Structure formats: structure tokens, C-alpha cells
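Handout, page 2. Input:
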Amino acid sequence: MRRNTNSFRKQLKVIILLITIGHAVVSPPTAAGREFTSTDGKKIEAQVLKVTPDAVVLERGGSNFTVPLERLTKADQTYLKKWAENERKNRIPKVDIKINSNKRDRREQNAYEDRVGEFKFEIFIDNEERAFDIKKASGTLIVLGKYLYEKGEGIVMERKEFKDITIPDGEAIKLEGNLIKFEYDKSGYTHGQKYDGYLFVLRTGNGKVIKTIGSTSRVENASALIQKLKNGDRFNERTFAKSNSETRR
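Output:
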């Protein structure tokens, strides 16, 4: 008896689904959306919410319903395939980014008592989407330093571009910068370069910014200016405008 009851419930669910699809297709069109046509010639005007490999989720009059792609015409299936491709290109995925500079800085025991240091950035990116893979993304890491030969000037200590970043949904990756060593002294004979912060920008495959992370909010706000700087460029620490002076190493 239980087996017969379960079989009846399954049949009932199938009947309800077919009735829902049939009702959606024969309903009069709405004022907005696209007109879709079923394989038996019935039409409906609705907005696309989501496309999966086998079905489309449509919205009409505040109600959502799922229609198998095989029930729609070839022209509609082609349109939905392009819609899904465009949605993937233009979508800004939700990500979490954590950055570790691994900076070390110590006093060197020599006649000048210089300080020496190094850093090698690690960038952890977590794709928080559950049905969207990040593909062909790009990233830019710019490490900023104080240029102690000239008061009020900074220098780009490292600029690294990351290409073809792929992160499956729900997974995370790690990007690594280069190992950069530096030396400076702020007392006596002031010289050298001193680490001062960073900017990291992650973009979609078509160049839209997904997220910008800076060592300070001031750096984040100046992102557009900082991204114009190249490796080794000197800049005004207050405005981030590039300096035309030659760099001393």
C-alpha cells in the first residue's frame, strides 16, 4: 500500500508540473519581457531569471516558473544560450579576498645601521558563488613604498599582473607576488626604499572590477591613479601623481 501511495504522489507531482507549464504558455502576454514559443505553438511573454543546461526560470506577473528547454523552439533555445553567455560575461561574482604581505623588517648590523626587509605577497581569493565559475579573470597587485631620497615621494616597489584566473564555484585559490628585498635608513644618511602599502584589483574576463582591496581606504580611493603607475615609477605621496624625476637605486 505504501509503495502504491508513493507512486501516486510522484504521478501527481508530474501532473501538477505539466499543468503549471501549460498554464504559463497559454497565459496572455505581459507588458514587459520576451515572447517565448513552445514546441506546440503556444506563446508567453516573460522575463528570464536564470538559465541552466536543461531549463529556464521565467518570471511573469510576480510568479516564477521553470520550463524545460526542450519544450521551447530552437530559436528560443538559441536566444537563451546567448543570454546565459552574456550574463556570465557581465556578472560581478561575490568574492572574499584576504591579503598577506609576509613583510619582514630588521636592523642590519653594519656601519650605517641600515634596516633591511623583504616581502612576498599572498592573495587568497574565495569564490562565494554556488552556481557560477569565475573564468579568465585578471588581477593587478601594486606594492607602494616610501622613496626616502626625496621627501614626500613614493615609489612602486612591485607591480604584478595576474592573467587567466579561474576559480570554480565555492572554491578558493592563492596568488603569489615576487620576493622583493629592500633596504633603507631614516636617520643620519637618509636613503633607500621602505614598504608603505598595497593595492589589489580583481577584474572579470571583460575588464569589469570585481573587487578593490587596499592597505588603507585612501589607497582604495586613489585606485584609478595608482593603476596608472608602472613598476619603479615615483609619485607624489599626497596626490599619487607620477613624478618625472629619475629613480635612484
